Every structure is written in C-alpha cells, then in structure tokens.
Amino acid sequence: MEFLQYFGEVFTLTNFTILVCGTIGGLLLGATPGLSPTMAVALLIPFTFQMEPTTSLILLGAVYTSTVAGGAVSGILVNIPGAPANIATVMDGHPMAKNGRATEALHYCFISSLIGGVVGVFLLIFFTPPLADLALKFGPPELFWMSIFGVTIIASLGGGQVTKGLIAGALGLWISTIGYNPVLGEERFVFTEHLAGGVHIIAALIGLFAIPQVLTLLQNSGKKSEVQMNSLENHSVLKSFRYNISRVRALTIGTVVGSIVGVIPGAGGQIAGLVAYDQTRKSSPDPSKFGKGEPDGVIAAESANNAMVGPSLVPLLTLGIPGSPTAAVLLGGLLINGLFPGPDLFTVHAKVTWTFIDSLLVGQVLMMIFGLSISRYSRFVTRIPNHMMAATVTVLAVFGTYSVQNSMSDVLVMLSLGVMMFFAAKIGFSPAPLVLGLILGKLTETNFLQGRMIGDSMDGAWSYFFSGTINLILITLCVLSIVFSVRGEIRETKAKREKERLQALGAQENQDGAAL
Amino acid sequence: MIVLKKPLIASLSVFILSAFLLYLCVGHETPEVYLFPLIVSIALFLLSGFLLTRELLGIYTSDIEAMGLLKLLPVLGIFIAYLYAIELLGMYSSSMLALFLIAFIYHPPATLTERIKSSALVAVLFIGAMYILFSVLLKVQTPMGLLM
C-alpha cells in the first residue's frame, strides 16, 4: 500500500493547482477537433522544463487522462471525435445528441470514464511494482530484445500496414544514431552543424505529431463546414449516474477490454474503444439498437478508452515500453526529467512516481467533476476555425521546441521532420513507430554494444543474446507480434480485394442491365 | 512493361532512401562506431525491398492519399521564411508575422478587411500570451533581431 503513503503530496498547493489546470486544459484541448492527446502532450513537454519532476509529470498525466475523455465532447455534439480514442463513442453518442439527449450522452461519457479510469489506475498501482521487480533480472541482452519488441509491436499495431510500420520503426532507430556513438563516443552522420548533438527527442516529438496536423488542418481550411451543433437539454446528473451504474454489462466489458488493451504495448485507446463497443453490441439482447443512440455504446467505449490509460503506463514505467502513442510521448517527458523506467522509479524516485500515480487517481475524479460542469462550454472550442488553430499551433511548436535548449537547430530539425512526416503519412506511414524507434534507439544501441562486449568476454555475443529464458521469450514475442500482424494484413488485403471484386461485379451488372 | 503508378513510386522512393542510408554506414575507418546503424540499415533495406517487391508483383497496393501540394506551397514558404526571419527580426515579431500570414492566407472567403482584422487580432493576442508565458514566466532567452 505504498501508494497511500504519498497521497498527501497530490494535495500540496502547487501540485493540486497544476492537476486542476491540467485537467481543465486537457478537457478543452481534447474537445478541440484536430488537436490529438498525443500532440497536446508533445506540445506541453517544453513548458514542464522549469517545473519539479513531480509537478511536471502530474501535468502531463492530467492532460493525457482528460484529453481522452474531452475528445468525446466534440464527437457527441458535432460528430467529430476530438481524438482517435473517441471514434467508437461517436457511433451512439452523436445519434443520442441528434435525438435530443446530448447532455445525457455527455453525462454517461464522463461517469463511465471515471469508472473505467479508476479501475485502470488501480491496475497500474498493483501490477507495476511486481513487474518492475522482474525488470531487475534484465541485463543488456534482455533490455535490447525488450526494446526491439516495443518497436515491432507498435509498428504492427500502428496503422494496419505492418511492413510500413516496421520500416518507420527502423527509420526511427536509424535517426536516433545521428550524433555520437553512446559507448565509443565517436561522432557519426553529422552532415551539418544543426545535427551536431543528434536529433533531440522533444524536437522530434513536436515535429512528428504537430506539424503534419498543422498541414492537414490547412489543407482542409476554407471548406464550407456543414457541422451542426446539437443543443443541450436539461438532465439530472443523479439520474444519469444511477442509470450508468445499472449498465453493469457495458461497464464491465468496457473496463475489462480497456485494461487488457492498455497493457498490450502500442495498442492505444482507439482499439480499446472499438473492441469494447463491438463486444457490447454483440452481447446485447438487441444489437439493432446500436448506432441509433444506444447509451450502452457510449458507456462501453468511454469506460474502455479511459480504463486503457492506467494499464498503458504499466509497461512504460517498468520496462520503458509505452502502451500507446501518447504514452510514448510521456516516456520522452520521463527521460528529460532524468527518470529512467525500471525498478529505480519505485525505490530511488518513489516519491515522484507514487505521487504521479496518485495524481492520476485524483485526476479521474476531477475529470468527471469538471467534465460534467464545463462540457456545456467546451462546445465553443469546437468552433475554432482550422486556419487559426493551424497558425497558433505552428507558433506554439516553434516556441516550445526553441525553449528546450535555446537552439534554432532544434527548430529547423522539428519543422523538417514534421514536413517529411506529413508526406510520409500520405503514403501510409505512421509517426508512432518512428517516434518509438527514436526514443528507444539510444537504449537499444547502448544495450546492444554493452551486451556484445560482455558476450565477447564470455562464450561469444551470439550465445549471450540468443540464450536464457527471458531472451528466448522476448525473441518469440517479437516473432509472434510480426507473424500475427502479417496475418492480419493479409486478411485485410484479401477483404479489400473481395470488396473491389464485388463492386466491379455490381458495376458490370448495372451496365448489362442498362444495355438490355 | 512496368507502369509507374503512385504506390510504386512511393515504395521505390523508400527503397532508394534505405539504400542510401545503408551506403552511409559502410566503408568507414572505424566500423565499430557504425555497427548498430549498419544492422538497422540492413533491416530497413530488406523491409523496403520486400515492400517494393510486393508492389511490383501486384500482391499488395498501398493506399496513397492526394498530396495537395499546391495548397500547401504558401505555408511551406512561410516556414522557410520564418526560420530566416527569427534571427533577422527576432522571435516575437517574426512569429507574429508568420501567424498573421498563415491565418490571412488560409482564411475562409471573407472581405479583405475582415480577414486582416481577425488575423491581426489573433496574432497580437496570441503573441502577447506567448511573451508573458515564455519571457516573463519561464524566462526563456529568445533570439533578438532588428525588432524583438
């Protein structure tokens, strides 16, 4: 029960103020279409430099949690999910709003988020320390394979295109080698003075997540918006609470699915929400109600995407493997604060870590309170025009990147990576595996080189890396993650071809019919 | 005959890039320094080769979205000018100018006065907030050019 020992730290004036501001800010940012949780956390990291590590992590954690729930507001009211994690919520949330039940849908969204979120954080509290102890048994080869596993799994789950995900992950690893060799200290791939210190993680994070979004917003600017804002009716919170609690099946499915998906590295809230929604629909006595404004759809999706948050930090805090793209950005936040995932977090930095975890728990309650009270007003942020959003995010990205090291080179690298990522995304590449490769690159290379030296002095590097139970399990997991993803991709391709064939067949029949 | 369709061009570009990265890792005096990037480059080369082969054989075709480059040319130009202007004019004035230009150019159809007014208002207010946050609160030293 170590987490209770540091509970009071959350309520110090600074920490609690930051937690409240982060929660309100996160709810508003989440409700803003085009501003994803990952991008919000990435843009926020430079602002946390001046803060104490505990305060900085509390802010990042609060924004991470509340943007996921806040994203449902724009989804329910205007049919535009604020974040990918809210796609499933929209399926029934928006029809509810169209049926004059918008407030009710928002109530279910925040109450379910609280329930799912609290369960998720408790899983984080009870599962993280034993897993961190297991990490004590990890030497250089195990840590090397763990990093490779992280890259392969996030690559496989990134965008549905496994080969491209793996290429992006490998490219991230390659970019991380620019600068100095971490063991031998010799310079490499420094083609210009701007790359002298390598690619800074924060510059890369902001560039890869914010700039493509800016360019997409500008590409879509000027188009006539057909968005219709649904009005909010008066509905008792207590009544919603009672109804929400009574939907045991939807809540259970959402919370269980969210927790499981959260622990799987790389999966994220979108998968959690969609799987939970699908399972709830399938197990419903009347599945035909779904998609037409069924509250169970909102309850399952929202409890799942918030239940995912806590468990997604379990592999992050213990092994350095993020459970979602936003958690990958959070890893960057940990590293710049000098905190390295593993058992040290729970021994040397116990105060920082437990206060952060406790703040996530308190943050869930605050998120529901503020969510219920400000969701009425957060609909205004959904009206911010694309061009204004893009212009301000550009300036924020430049200021944020510059402030990290007072370096114009970082700004140049950030903008260049961002523009390249925008075009890469157009041909099917996702930023998440690239970022993870970049973050894990130094760790992977250091463990590889150290392991090689140790291995050479023993039975040889080959047997050092390819023997031992943990190594073999990790190698098997790497292979399995790729095999399963390739199988999924083959199935998807087959289904796509079949659809195209049927469409062609239909068109041919129509033509024949017209000719007759 | 091989027809160079968009997905094939994309896969070919990735293959050429990975071949270039592999080339950068070989032929050095101290190969130890380049060992890890060399292994990563080989993996990258094999993966991109696999992607290209699948495209060539027609086993798999990537979904390619339209680039819409023409509409983005002004903002890409602003990005380049912004980078130069920061050291010439100063961080705040160049940011205000960049913000104004992006908001003005990509403003939905409206009268000229309306576009100028709304873009200028947002630029002044936002840069004012940035000044308070970065210079006053966070004490970040920003590049000072001819202006600020």
Note down, in words, how this protein is organized.
The complex is a heterodimer of chains A (516) and B (148). With 516 residues, chain A is mainly α. Helices cover 74% and strands 1% of the residues of chain A. Chain A contains 23 helices and two strands. Chain A is globular and about 70 Å long. With 148 residues, chain B is mostly helical. Chain B has two domains: 6-57; 69-137, no CATH class. The model of chain B has no long low-confidence stretch (mean pLDDT 87). Classes of the chains: A mainly alpha (516), B mainly alpha (148). At the A-B interface, α8, α9, α19, α20 and α21 of A face α1, α2, α3, α4 and α5 of B.
Brief descriptors of the model:
heterodimer; A: 516 residues; mainly alpha; two-stranded antiparallel sheet; 74% helix; globular; B: 148 residues; 2 domains; 5 helices; 0% strand; flat
State the gist of this model.
The complex is a heterodimer of chains A (516) and B (148). Chain A is mostly helical.
Q: What is the typical, i.e. mean, pLDDT of chain A?
A: 84
- Overall 3D geometry of chain A? globular
Q: How many domains in all of chain A? A: 1
Structural class call of chain B reads mainly alpha
Which geometry of chain B do the CA atoms define? flat
Strand order of the largest sheet of chain A: 1-2
Give start-end ranges of low-pLDDT stretches of chain B: none
- SS field, number of helical segments of chain A: 23
Order of helices and strands of chain A: HHHHHHHHEEHHHHHHHHHHHHHHH
Structural class of chain A: mainly alpha
Helical percent range of chain B? over 70%
What's the helical proportion of residues of chain A? over 70%
Mean pLDDT of chain B: 87
N- to C-terminal separation of chain A?
A: 78 Å
Largest sheet of chain B: none
Number of helices of chain B: 5
- What would you report as the Rg of chain B, rounded to the nearest angstrom? 23 Å
Count of beta strands of chain B:
0
Total strand count of chain A, please? Answer: 2
> H/E series of chain B, N to C?
HHHHH
